[in-house]
């Protein structure tokens, strides 16, 4: 039986990926230090005898080695995302040391390696849609938010370099904003999380900047189908592939759609927040962020299929259940 190691297994994407790999017949070893994950996300997986979970920090190589056993594929999703939730140090160190350790496990066992990088590595490149060979245009290190993109860019270099040195089969996926049930309910989970939460509580929707910046939003089941495809693809070795939807939506449009889907009528109540009020230090945003999806289709046979309104309806229904439970919100933010 094929065995997969999923890091960050109690997180949003990795918990769904764990379910998907179990459904594909794998044995799955999941590890997470629960810094942003939640064991509730693994309730379905925990009912499956082919799943084992270990509370382990991916920065601790010895602990990681102790629990993984024989592995055919490493799916490395553990990461520290937005620096403003602590300091950039966490983002830089977890994403570099954790990736080095996950890579070491893959190299030691000649296992396949898949890592989730981010669309943020394209940075402020004004040419959209972003093709995988496009330039990475990051702002200066004095703007802390770029620590995330820089750490993932380092990861990408490390993956390609070690895969070449050791000869393992590795695939880098650049994930574009994913949403759905189990998403984190703060900005850590993305603007849709915060907007749904505000609307369901009857509060005004916080919009960063002028709200005309655009993104694409990919339903979690689509994102996970793309990651699982990369675990088995035959022509994706040493490749970088975008995983996302090509539908471009402004942040204001996203707020309007969610408001309407929640039963709101007319214009949504929004509060514009200037960028200099978001972070302690200077903040820079990305004006347009849309993937070129051709390589994903060619190498992985992957295309996002869920319409935004359909995915949002499912997400709103899931998120509605948590509104009365403030303790849960505190738990996962
Ligand atoms: N969700 C998105 O839209 C999106 C977009 C771009 C990239 N990604 C990437 O996808 C991956 C998963 O993202 P997510 O949105 O599910 O985030 P998430 O925070 O829900 O999941 C990450 C998980 O990693 C765990 N983790 C963090 N540090 C750890 C450590 N030192 N040891 C062990 N576990 C640790 C957290 O507890 C969490 O459960 C990340 O690599 C992220 O960079 C996600």
Tags for this model:
seven-stranded parallel β-sheet, UDP-galactose 4-epimerase, domain 1, disordered C terminus, Rossmann fold, alpha/beta, 2 domains, binds nicotinamide-adenine-dinucleotide, single chain, globular, 333 residues, two-stranded parallel sheet
CATH class of the largest domain: Alpha Beta
What bound compounds does this protein have?
nicotinamide-adenine-dinucleotide
- Cα gyration radius (Å): 19 Å
Q: Label the overall shape.
A: globular
**Total helical segments:** 11
Low-confidence stretches: 326-333
CATH superfamily of the largest domain: NAD(P)-binding Rossmann-like Domain
Strand content: 15-25%
Q: Considering DSSP H and I runs of 4 or more, what fraction of the residues is helical?
A: 25-40%
In the CATH hierarchy, the architecture of the largest domain is: 3-Layer(aba) Sandwich
What class do helices, strands and sheet pairing give? alpha/beta
Tally of distinct domains: 2
- State mean pLDDT (0 to 100 scale): 95
Q: What topology, given as strand order, has the largest sheet? A: 3-2-1-4-5-6-11
């Amino acid at each position: 039986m094929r065995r997969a190691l999923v890091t960050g297994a109690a997180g949003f994407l990795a918990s769904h990926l764990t379910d998907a790999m179990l459904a594909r017949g794998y044995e799955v070893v999941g590890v997470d230090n629960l810094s942003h994950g939640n064991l509730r996300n693994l309730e379905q997986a925990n009912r499956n005898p082919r799943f084992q979970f270990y509370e382990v920090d991916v920065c601790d190589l010895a602990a990681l080695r102790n629990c993984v056993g024989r592995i055919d594929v490493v799916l490395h999703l553990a990461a520290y995302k937005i620096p403003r939730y602590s300091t950039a140090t966490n983002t830089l160190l977890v994403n570099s040391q954790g990736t080095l350790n996950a890579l070491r496990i893959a190299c030691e066992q000649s296992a396949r390696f898949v890592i989730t990088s981010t669309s943020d590595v394209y940075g402020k490149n004004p040419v959209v849609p972003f093709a995988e060979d496009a330039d990475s245009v990051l702002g200066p290190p004095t703007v802390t938010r770029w620590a995330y993109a820089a750490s993932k860019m380092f990861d990408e270099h490390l993956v390609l370099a070690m895969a070449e040195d050791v000869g393992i089969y590795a695939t880098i996926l650049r994930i574009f904003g994913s949403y759905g049930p189990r998403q984190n309910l703060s900005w850590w989970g993305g603007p849709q999380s915060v907007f749904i939460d505000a609307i369901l509580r009857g509060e005004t929707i916080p919009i960063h900047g002028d709200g005309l910046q655009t993104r694409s939003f990919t339903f979690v089941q689509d994102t996970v189908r793309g990651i699982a495809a990369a675990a088995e693809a035959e022509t994706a070795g040493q490749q970088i592939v975008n995983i996302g939807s090509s539908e471009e939506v402004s942040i204001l449009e996203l707020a309007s759609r969610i408001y309407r889907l929640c039963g709101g009528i007319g214009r949504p109540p929004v509060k514009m927040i200037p960028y200099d009020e978001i972070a302690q230090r200077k903040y820079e945003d990305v004006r347009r962020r849309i993937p070129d999806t051709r390589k994903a289709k060619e190498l992985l046979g992957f295309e996002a299929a869920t319409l935004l309104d359909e995915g949002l309806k499912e997400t709103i229904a899931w998120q509605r259940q948590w509104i009365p439970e403030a303790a849960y919100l505190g738990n996962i933010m």
